[in-house]
Design goal:
The complex is a heterodimer of chains A (426) and B (500). Chain A has 426 residues and is of the alpha/beta class. Chain A is built from 14 helices and 14 strands. Chain B has 500 residues and is of the alpha/beta class. Classes of the chains: A alpha/beta (426), B alpha/beta (500).
Chain lengths: 426, 500
């Protein structure tokens, strides 16, 4: 008695729940592996799956068994030359069995549990419940690119837009219409003339007059113009708004002496996160790196994160440069502009009000979102207080203070949560 | 010779073909007097096979992260081509469920049907360990019950709380079996009815045990000397389920579920060589019979022999591929040998197996299949011929000696010794550490004392501390593990304190 069942159609992914349980249980380790991976990648190279490796001992299930030692007798197959009583030198303990630092070095590959997480899972470890600010608004209202679209025909325009078929059809109709009365009269004249010619009693003058009239009418018909300005029709094009699918992200960072490598690392993660948001929502993203101390310059990513400068800090120099680049290279009808600024809060005292002015008057009207993080354990300085005034006036301006790497997630979530509330409030 | 009328010649399978093959295989199996449960053959995809792998073949399983880990590990290895999947998985249930992979060729499907649906199936039904210790009729229902129960607990007490209990139980899973006492037969309905009563009853019993009001009428001084439990207990999970003072009823139920499942797999651990040997012997015999009857063509036969040879390959101890004795090879060799001894005995066979020679091989093999486990099977049936063929030899590895010594080879003086050592090698009693519940300080701080009785001075290894922490968590109070050597002396004591 056999039952044959095709189970292939049944639900696959029976292990999906268990897999999720596993990922959840080792979330902290996986997150760490993900963040390590992040710091080794370029910002633009961030979005792909990752091979995660966790020390096997962290996830092994505890178990007791008999260890090496004591007396054990074993049977093996394939004897070739042994006879009873043969003595064999005890082989060295295999690596990975515990003691000795050297063993763990060579055997490390075996001690890791390696598995793949998908791109989506990788990203989710970052985003969790975060959300791109102003996204809906961006797509529906603010940012439009215009695209020409055909919209019927019109009577005026430039010669290159003349629609030949339409124009000639109009001309044809006009010609028929204008010829009609003459043709009718001509027909009547011709009929009458024929009658007169048949009738021998008709007067010669009358015939002459009719002939003249016929010639006149034929001439009239011929003089109707083949085509007239009145006939011309032009293709009509209208502008149709089209949402932009590209964004530019400005990374602005203070590289003065007070920003050490650890602060830069924090800043990098902050930039990466914003970049990742954008990649989820825009087809094309460009990055502009502006570093500044007393003067600002546009630099490569490598220089941005790893070069070290000294000197004081004038933040407005960076803002000016940014405005210049944004207005020349990234017109707002083509580009969504996002700005992420990181600094330790130091600024030339007199410069801070200038920063506020530049921001409020020039930059904020251009950008989708401006986020500022201050990486410092100390109390706020003038720049923070000036920025606070900006924050009050612009809903798409957000600022937070960060102390160490672990603050990044909450900070970003906060940034966007705040946006969210504003959005729903407005 | 009859003209061949093969059932099929293409390597593609169809459901009709599987049906036809199964019909023929069933007929041949019946002629060989194989007694089986009804079969349920399920065709599954590679992914589903990996699912089945991850949950150690259980068709229904409660959720636990460790199964996710297994799945990810299997999936990674499979995708990278480091590992092929097994051709089949078979479940000891009634009806007996066998999985066929959709990737298999028609010949492979036939082989798997013969191997699993008739070989393993008849073993599950016939072998005394399975018959006495597992309930094939009830296992699927019980797994369903346990899955639902644990899901319910997760909803009621939270996933984390349930996971904690399961983690602790899994750590002690190997110590959750009755080795000697027969467990009660499982039944889903009875489980459900009894479960409510049991919760109340258990709690009441435990309260009785831990009652702190002194009993004035029964104050014998010898009471203080008495141990609890009176005799050492081998089933640690059972002891905790019944006696741990602080556990909630649902936690006790989960412990019960884990140990029931552990118990269900226990016979399989003890009969690897026999079970695989039996199934391999039968797929070999049945497919050869089909070939002899002209139901398979030469091409199929070549493919079959190639697969079969791979299955029973045994690399020598000095081969880089050597990974211990292959249970398929050893089991198949012994099974085939029994038939050989019955049908064509040599003078050596007459001397070694006087009770086997010239008997009906079907009856003799049936007896061997029913009444043994690996350990006893090897000590009963491992013949000098197999020892010679496999060139088995024994090593004595004693850490008190400077060298490892060869103590037996395939010669007249060595046969018995090889047989003896090999049998012990499959004795779970000596493979697994012997740890038992020894005492509970009932009148004091409730410390639980376990004793590890050393076997051949072998030390404990693995993540012992972790396991003891889990034990302590389940027990709810401090625990002590004492290691006792051959002379009964306590040589090591490990204390684990409960964290509050």
């Amino acid at each position: 008695m056999t039952r044959l069942i095709d189970k292939r159609i049944n639900a696959k992914n029976k292990s999906a729940v268990n897999r999720q349980r596993f990922l959840k249980r080792y979330k902290s380790q996986i997150k760490k592996a993900v963040t390590d991976a992040i710091s080794n990648r370029s910002i633009t190279d961030i979005e792909s799956g990752e091979s995660i490796s966790i020390p096997a001992k962290d996830i092994s299930e505890p178990i007791i068994y008999h260890g090496q030692g004591g007396k054990r007798e074993m049977i093996h197959p394939g004897n070739k030359e042994f006879v009873p009583g043969d003595k064999i030198k005890r082989p060295q303990q295999k690596s990975g069995k515990g003691q000795g630092d050297q063993a763990s070095d060579s055997g490390e590959g075996q001690d890791e549990f390696v598995f793949e997480i998908s791109k989506e899972e990788f990203m989710d470890f970052f985003f969790e419940d975060m959300e791109l600010p102003n996204l809906v608004k961006t797509q529906v209202t603010t940012i439009y690119d215009k695209k020409k679209s055909r919209a019927g025909f019109k009577a005026d325009g430039i010669p290159s837009n003349i629609n030949v078929v339409r124009s000639l059809r109009n001309a044809h109709a006009r010609r028929i219409a204008l010829r009609a009365p003459y043709k009718k009269e001509l027909k009547e004249c011709q009929d009458e003339l024929e009658e007169l010619l048949d009738d021998s009693s008709s007067s010669a003058t009358k015939i002459e007059a009719l002939k003249e009239r016929i010639v006149f009418l034929e001439k009239k018909i011929k003089t109707i113009p083949y085509i007239d300005e009145f006939d011309l029709r032009y293709n009509n094009h209208v502008d149709v708004p089209k949402p932009t699918t590209q964004a530019v992200m400005f990374c602005v960072m203070d590289v003065s002496g007070s920003m050490d490598q650890s602060k830069k690392d924090i800043a990098k993660r902050f930039f990466i996160l914003l970049y990742l948001f954008l990649t989820r929502n825009y087809e094309k993203i460009e990055l502009v790196f502006i570093s500044h101390h007393t003067t600002a310059k546009e630099v490569t990513e490598q220089e941005f994160f790893y070069s070290r400068e000294t000197g004081g800090t004038v933040v407005s120099s960076a803002l000016k440069l940014m405005h210049e680049i944004a207005s020349t290279r990234y017109p707002t009808n083509d580009w969504n502009i996002y700005i992420a600024q990181a600094s330790d809060g130091d600024n030339w005292y007199d410069d801070s009000p200038t920063c506020r002015e530049i921001l409020a008057e020039k930059i904020m009207p251009l950008v989708q979102y401006y986020s500022y993080v201050e990486i410092t354990p100390d109390s706020h300085q003038s720049l923070w207080h000036e920025y606070e005034k900006v924050e009050q006036n612009f809903s798409n301006f957000a600022m937070r203070k960060i102390v160490d790497v672990s603050d990044i997630f909450p900070v970003l979530r906060n940034l966007f949560k705040k946006k969210d509330e504003l959005k729903t409030a407005s | 010779m009859k003209k061949r009328k093969p059932l099929s010649t293409s390597s593609e399978w169809t459901f009709e073909l599987i049906d036809t093959y199964d019909h023929e295989i069933a007929r041949i199996a019946k002629n060989f007097k194989l007694d089986t449960y009804p079969n349920q053959i399920e065709v599954i995809s590679a992914e589903q096979m990996m699912d089945a792998y991850a949950s150690s073949g259980m068709p229904i399983g409660y959720h636990h992260w460790s199964y996710g880990k297994n799945f990810m590990d299997t999936e990674k290895k499979y995708r990278r081509g480091q590992m092929g999947l097994a051709y089949e998985i078979v479940i000891n249930s009634n009806p007996c469920i066998s999985y066929l992979m959709e990737e298999n060729t028609m010949l492979m499907q036939a082989l798997v049907i013969a191997h699993a649906a008739y070989g393993h199936n008849s073993f599950f039904k016939g072998n005394y360990l399975f018959e006495q210790w597992t309930s094939a009729d009830a296992i699927i229902d019980y797994l369903l019950f346990s899955k639902n129960y644990i899901k319910e607990c997760e909803q009621r007490y939270g996933v984390d709380a349930v996971e904690n209990i399961l983690d602790s139980c899994h750590a002690l899973m190997n110590f959750g079996v009755d080795r000697y006492k027969r467990p009660q037969q499982l039944s889903m309905k009875k489980e459900q009815i009894r479960q409510k009563d049991r919760e109340a009853y258990l709690q009441q019993q435990i309260n009785e045990l831990w009652r702190t009001i002194p009993n004035y009428y029964d104050t014998k001084t010898e009471e203080v000397e008495r141990r609890f439990p009176l005799d050492p207990q081998e089933n640690i999970l059972y002891f905790i389920e019944k006696n741990a003072p602080l556990l909630e009823p649902w936690q006790r139920e989960i412990i019960r579920i884990v140990r029931k499942i552990s118990q269900y797999f226990y016979p399989q651990k003890q009969t690897k060589v026999m079970n695989e040997g039996w199934a391999t012997f039968w797929h070999y015999t049945i497919l050869n019979q089909m070939y002899d009857e002209g139901l398979m063509n030469d091409g199929y036969m070549m493919e079959f022999l190639q697969s079969h040879t791979n299955v029973i390959k045994q690399p020598g101890f000095d081969s880089p591929y050597y990974n211990g004795l292959n249970p398929y090879a050893l089991g198949f060799a012994i099974m085939s040998d029994i038939r050989n001894i019955c049908e064509n005995p040599t003078s050596e066979d007459r001397e070694w197996f006087p009770e086997l020679v010239d008997t009906d091989w079907l009856e003799t093999m049936d007896f061997a299949m029913r009444n043994f486990k690996d350990e006893s099977f090897i000590s009963q049936y491992l013949s000098p011929r197999i020892i010679r063929q496999m060139r088995l030899f024994g090593l004595n590895d004693d850490d008190q000696e400077a060298h490892i010594e060869v103590n037996a080879i395939h010669n007249t003086t060595g046969y018995q010794k090889v047989r003896h050592i090999l049998a012990d090698q499959y004795n779970l009693g000596s493979i697994e550490p012997n740890i038992q519940i020894y005492n509970v300080n009932v009148r004091g701080d409730r410390t639980l004392t376990l004793r590890h009785y050393q076997y051949n001075r072998k030390p404990l290894a693995g993540t012992l501390d972790e396991v003891l922490k889990h034990l302590t968590r389940l027990w709810g109070f401090n625990t002590v593990l004492e290691t006792v050597d051959n002379n009964g002396e306590i040589i090591q004591t490990t204390k684990t304190e409960i964290k509050h």
